[in-house]
UniProtKB/TrEMBL annotation:
It is found in: Endoplasmic reticulum membrane. Residues 1-686, 732-859 are cytoplasmic. Keywords: Coiled coil, Endoplasmic reticulum, GTP-binding, Hydrolase, Membrane, Nucleotide-binding, Transmembrane, Transmembrane helix. Its EC number is 3.6.5.-. This is Protein ROOT HAIR DEFECTIVE 3 homolog. Coiled coil: none annotated. One of its GO terms (molecular function) is GTPase activity.
Length: 859
């Protein structure tokens, strides 16, 4: 297949193309097409360039076409001699290895350009010498040894321009003697060489090359061919023999075996173009510098080409895509191989160019490629970083869940996460780059440390919060209940409760803290803070309870005052010693005040209770406050021997609380006293049971008689109503409150007017309604007042101050009007007994019986 391609390329290359036209313009585009079609560019250094120069119409093209199988234009022999080749043409030799490019130059001394126009001749000669490995010099046999030979000016020109090449490559000059005569070549060649030497000697040379021999610059070879026109058969035969010399021409010992400074085939065209440009500008042609320049340009081109290939490399694009989504396993290996492929391609293409240039450009290309791919590497590392942190998080959680200590878990998980990250980094680097991942490793370490720190903080907070919650649960309710039952041992009980609970909870915390490996000092400090927290729970509870001291005192008072020793609700029958009970209840409330006045952690005995009892209970605050304030032990804001921070209620506050307490409990006591009185009264209204029995026995006959006679019954009933009405009007119970005799006197004095009033009222009731309205219009305000219900008299231990004050307020007008006849509107003298009975209805609500039942309900 490759052979077929090479043959096709050779066939395509055999078609001659113009490299430089007759006007001296370089035909870059067509030349480039030729290079590609002929497959010259990929030959590296394995190619040779052959040029032919000589007089016009000396059979150059004919020779080349026969020698190399090319198709340079030849002159038609039958039309006469004229110029056919203009400028420089180029073709690839067919069937000659290595790849040989042959150039047919415009003939010298052509009449078309005139005698004086030798500029192009010189320029094309110099160009051929600068780029060719072998230069064929076509000359007529009969010119050898002649003074006016046509090739002499040509040789002169060749040698002259040769001096302009700073460090010329060693070129093989193959003199082809055309139309050889019978004189054998052995005789002709020395003559020719002598002529050449003479010309070389006559050419002016720069100082540096004054004594340089011709052989330093040229490898002179001579061959002779018979006339093509006369002895074509022989000509063709010898041309075939000559062709053999071009096989492996560049190998050592070959025609161009001594050549130096070859430009790689891929740079040949560019190099030729640049050389022609310099020659045209008539500048000095520095071939070594030119070589470097060509190498620079070509290596740049190759590097750019390679870089472009990498950017569109499907494997690279896939890898770049993959790494955006997540870390890629074997990233370094994959990327390294991609980079390697492209660098190798560069090396392969640039291998024949100047080494220094090639290496410099290689480095540039490599750094460009590394710059291109490094973000992908960084991306891979950032994925690995995230993965390492995630691994650390999960690992730490699992380790902690398995019950391992925090510090040990962090240590182990950090180690495994960092080792995995390190491995990932090592897997991501490529051999072409010395990418440093120590910084990102440091970042991962910091990430892990920060996370561990935050987890430690949250775990510690969780631990302390848990311990606090346990302490709170263990202390709050028991302490509250201890304060509820406050007494002598309250504070010692609280202290022992506190000690018991802290000793049960805190060692667990200490043990848990040891897993954090933060030193015993830290653990002790934490535990000590929790101990303080426990104390603060107790103290806050004490403060809270102290802030409600008045309520607690009232509760305590009510409990003691309203319950007997068996905790049964007390019934005020009149036999109780209210004073003593009240004192006992107040004393209990005072003890409560004493307990809640200060915090007693050390349970040191103090005088607070004594001071309170002597000052408040035994003495009277109200009476002493004004007169003996100077000697009042409660006229202070601090307790003796008690630290201010342990003071819950200051002495002065105690005093004021006590004052309020007294005033708020006074009513309860008054109620109790009233209840007792009411009870006594209710018990004294009926005659003793024995009297009732006597009355029933002795008056049995009369009772029976009354029951049997309806008139008596009626009269008895009317009489009862009348007496009842009188009793109500006169308020008999009230009249007899102060004793029997004063009662009889008062009742007898009021009996008659009252009877009169009663009769008047009855009479008024029998009058028509209109008359009644004119004579006795009741005061408008009294009617609604009479409808108002009496205030409730129930007082619970939780009664608010407003409720207590309400109970203190004087009775309502209805109550007053009913209980005090002097304030009520006078009854009409004509009032009927029925009306009187109706009017008595509201009065029953406040009768002593009712009052006494309401009073019972106070407790
Ligand atoms: N006498 C003689 N004539 C030849 C020989 N080879 C070719 N010719 C003739 O010379 C004439 C010119 O041939 P070309 O090959 O075109 O010569 P050329 O040197 O390429 O001509 P230019 O390109 O114009 O410089 C043709 O008519 C050929 O037939 C030869 O060996 N001897």
């Amino acid at each position: 297949m490759a052979e077929v391609d090479a043959a096709a390329a050779a066939a395509a290359g055999a078609q001659a193309v113009q490299l430089i036209d007759g006007e001296g313009e370089f035909a870059g585009e067509s030349a480039e097409r030729f290079m590609t079609a002929a497959g010259v560019a990929g030959c590296g250094l394995s190619y040779a360039v052959v040029s032919i120069m000589g007089p016009q119409s000396s059979g150059k093209s004919t020779l080349l076409n026969l020698l190399f199988g090319t198709n340079f234009r030849e002159m038609d022999a039958f039309r006469g001699r004229s110029q056919t080749t203009k400028g420089i043409w180029m073709a690839r030799c067919v069937g000659v290895e290595p790849c040989t490019v042959v150039m047919d130059l415009e003939g010298t001394d052509g009449r078309e350009r005139g005698e004086d126009d030798t500029a192009f001749e010189k320029q094309s000669s110099l160009f051929a010498l600068a780029i060719s490995d072998i230069v064929l010099i076509n000359m007529w046999c009969h010119d050898i040894g002649r003074e006016q030979a046509a090739n002499k000016p040509l040789l002169k020109t060749v040698f002259q321009v040769m001096m302009r090449l700073f460090s010329p490559r060693k070129t093989t000059l193959l003199f082809v003697i055309r139309d050889k005569t019978r004189t054998p070549l052995e005789h002709l060649e020395p003559v020719l060489r002598e002529d050449i030497q003479k010309i070389w000697n006559s050419v002016p040379k720069p100082e540096a090359h004054k004594d340089t021999p011709l052989s330093e610059f040229f490898n002179v070879q001579v061959t002779a061919l018979p006339s093509f026109e006369e002895k074509e058969e022989q000509f063709r035969e010898q041309v075939q023999q000559l062709r053999q010399r071009f096989a492996n021409s560049i190998a050592p010992g070959g025609l161009a075996g001594d050549r130096r400074g070859v430009v790689p085939a891929s740079g040949f065209l560019f190099s030729s173009q640049q050389i022609w440009k310099i020659i045209r500008e008539n500048k000095d042609l520095d071939l070594p510098a030119h070589k470097v320049m060509v190498a620079t340009v070509r290596c740049d081109e190759i590097a750019n080409e390679r870089f472009g290939c990498l950017t569109s490399d499907a494997e690279w694009l896939d890898l770049e895509n993959d790494v955006q989504a997540g870390s890629v396993l074997g990233f370094g290996k994959k990327l390294g191989s991609i980079v390697e492929v492209h660098m190798e391609e560069y090396d392969k293409e640039a291998v024949y160019f100047d080494e220094a240039v090639r290496k410099a450009k290689r480095q540039l290309l490599e750094s460009r490629i590394l710059n291109l791919v490094q973000p992908a590497f960084q991306k891979n590392l950032s994925h690995l970083r995230t993965k390492a942190l995630e691994k650390f998080k999960t690992g730490l959680n699992q380790s902690l869940e398995s019950g391992k200590g925090f510090a040990a878990s962090v240590r182990e998980t950090t180690e495994s996460s960092l080792s995995e990250f390190n491995q990932g980094c090592a897997d991501s680097v490529i051999k072409q780059a010395d990418w440093d991942y120590s910084k990102i490793l440091e970042k991962v370490r910091r990430d892990i440390e920060d996370h561990a720190l935050s987890v430690r903080e949250s775990k510690l907070t969780e631990l302390t919060n848990h311990a606090k919650e346990k302490l709170r649960k263990a202390l709050v309710e028991p302490v509250e209940s201890l304060f509820d039952a406050a007494g002598q041992t309250t504070w010692s009980s609280i202290e022992s409760l506190y000690k018991r609970e802290t000793q049960a909870i805190l060692p667990e915390v200490f043990k848990a803290l040891s897993g954090f490996e933060m030193g015993s000092e830290f653990s002790e400090e934490m535990v000590s803070k929790l101990r303080d927290y426990g104390q603060s729970i107790v103290e806050n509870k004490a403060k809270e309870e102290a802030s409600k001291i008045l309520m607690h005192m009232k509760e305590r008072f009510t409990v003691v005052f309203s319950h007997d020793k068996d905790s049964m609700p007390r019934t005020w029958t009149g036999k109780e010693d209210v004073r003593a009970i009240a004192k006992e209840a107040r004393s209990a409330a005072l003890k409560l005040l004493s307990v809640l006045a200060v915090i007693r952690w050390d349970d040191k005995p103090d005088r607070i209770e004594n001071i309170l009892i002597t000052t408040l209970l035994d003495g009277s605050v109200a009476s002493k406050s004004s007169s003996a304030s100077s000697g009042d032990p409660l006229a202070s804001t601090s307790w003796e021997e008690v630290h201010p921070k342990h003071t819950l209620i200051t002495p002065a506050q105690c005093k004021s609380v006590w004052k309020q307490f007294q005033s708020e409990t006074e009513f309860t006591i008054t109620q109790a006293v009233s209840t007792q009185q009411a009870h006594r009264r209710s018990n004294g209204r009926l005659p003793p049971p024995w009297a009732l029995v006597a009355m029933a026995v002795l008056g049995f006959d009369e009772i029976m008689m009354l029951l049997r006679n309806p008139i008596y019954m009626f009269l008895l009933f009317v009489g009862y109503l009348l007496v009842r009405a009188l009793a109500v009007q006169l308020d008999i119970g009230r009249e007899f409150q102060n004793g029997m005799v004063p009662g009889i006197l008062s009742v007898s004095a009021k009996l008659l007017p009252t009877l009169q009033n009663l009769l008047n009222k009855v009479a008024t009731d029998q009058q028509p309604p209109q008359q009644q309205g004119q004579q006795h219009r009741p005061p408008a305000a009294e009617a609604p007042e009479a409808q108002q219900p009496p205030p409730p008299l129930l007082l619970s231990p939780k009664s608010s101050m407003s409720e207590l004050r309400r109970l203190h307020t004087p009775p309502s007008p209805v109550r007053r009007s009913v209980s005090s006849p002097s304030h009520s509107s006078p009854p009409s003298p004509k009032a009927s007994p029925r009306k009187v009975a109706e009017e008595q209805k509201p009065r029953r609500a406040v009768e002593p019986d009712n009052e006494s039942s309401s009073a019972y309900s106070i407790v």
